[in-house]
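mind reviewing both lines:
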Amino acid sequence: MSDFVSDFTPPVRLRLSPSSQAQHISTRTQGALSGLSGLALATSLMLSTSAMAQSVNPLDAMPGRVAAFETGNINPAGTFELNVGARQTSPDNRAGTGNQVYHGGGSYAFTDRFTLGLQLQNYVDPIGGPIDGVPGVGPDRIPQLETNELALWGKYQLYQDERWAISALASAEAFLTMQSDIWGGFFNKQTGITLGAVKAPITYKASSKLQLHLTPSLTLAPNDIAGDRFYGTIFSLGAGLTFKPNNRVALFGTLDAPISNDNTINSQGEWEKLPVWTVGGRYNVTPRVALEGYVTNGWGVTPATSIMTFWPDGDHILVGGRLVYTPGSKYDESYRDLSLPPTQAQLNAQQDGFTLGTAATLEPGHMRTEIWGGSDSNAGISLNFSTDRDTEIQVHFEQFSDSDTAPDDIRPSTDVHYMIGPKLRFMDQDNGNAFSLAGRMMYGRQITSNSVKIGVFYTDLIANYEMPNRLSFTASPKIAAWGSVELVGLGLGLDYTFDNGLALIAEVTPIGRDNDEATWAAGARYHFGKSGFSVDAMATNAIGRQGIGSMIAQDDTRFAVTLSKSFDPGSLF
């Protein structure tokens, strides 16, 4: 086997059991010649094993797609891949939390050469700025665009060897609905606008860590929509590179340039050619879950819309994030040596605090439900589910306090709103790290019958350190935004847990940017043995328990009670 293939081979550790060690000692005493023969045989077996062993985790290999750019790589047979993500413009570009493209999808590799996938994307916002001659909304007359797009795609690998990977991809896509000031008029709803793409990505494997990509593409779209010019047929040529220094990290940069037709509408209402560029990286949180982050000037994530820049001018920078999940028990569960099973104290520590989160995540496949209520009409429900080791999906429904002492200019509303997003654990004190570290990123909107549905964005980083005496420290930088309001904070918390399941919790979060009044919470929590039930009572000045509500203070103190239950849904059947 060539040195190139050996470069791709991860190291293999062999461990001798006590009985094997005894046999080895016994053999060694039979004579030097016998010992040397055994050593030679063992060395030969180790080398051959190392040469043949490869990672079973698809995410450890070079990615087949980075952001919306296609490479010649493809997942091995049996790989089921799910993804969800968003692209976000800067809130400074317009009122509100900016513009968001939400997307999600999945694929399945039927063979080592053929994969079939589905992708959805949604955009409901004004575009990035006004376009001459196009009507719009608001004082700046910015055109509005609302669209849902569905793409079905298939990818076949034509050729694969130690240096080259060549594939072909085709997609059939449709804008299921489109309302736009740019195409047909906002009140002239369009349906069933079909488009598609054909791509032939070519990947050159310069080394085990570096790959170069060349991707010629043909995008097929209507020439006009309701009499307004659309993209038509675009031939483009993409180039990129992927650098993967180890199994967990990949860095990438891509450029896709239109050759035969225009792909950008500028602010003067004219069409022009402009490359779509992307720079970013991917980090494997676990062998089954990867987090991708990047910056781009591109709007679309499907094969056909990937050549479209964000409007107008294509000079708006969008920050993108994508969570990639490859479920399957045949893949490794963690990159760490796990200390299993968890103790009851470790299970109890997987519950979030009063206004701060916890860096711990639920056990794989487990769920936690929480319901709370208290003074000033605050109430809420949380549903948390762990898809895999070190990952958790959180969904919150909450109604903020209606106290007259809360500042109305920074409180989104008192209507019920939802928030949803992932929590990812990057470090775990219980399994070899100096402390525990996790991050959350959540989007949401208020639930109301009128047309105004205020969008909110919240993200935090959570660090926990547990001392041997059951005292736990939490530090949590936070960012929240809605409308033109931006809040930053640094949450600090203490948690002391007694042997009987009782925990005392105290939290404070100094706030900056558009508010300067700190929030605090203090109280007690009791875990009922191994039942998974807990109840807590707290006093706080925060208008809510989750997200942006944990960062807005009212002048008077309110009280709340929470009931929680963690369980394995599989045990119910």
User: Anything to note?
Assistant: The CA atoms of residues 354 and 508 lie 10 Å apart. The chain is about 5% helix and 50% strand.
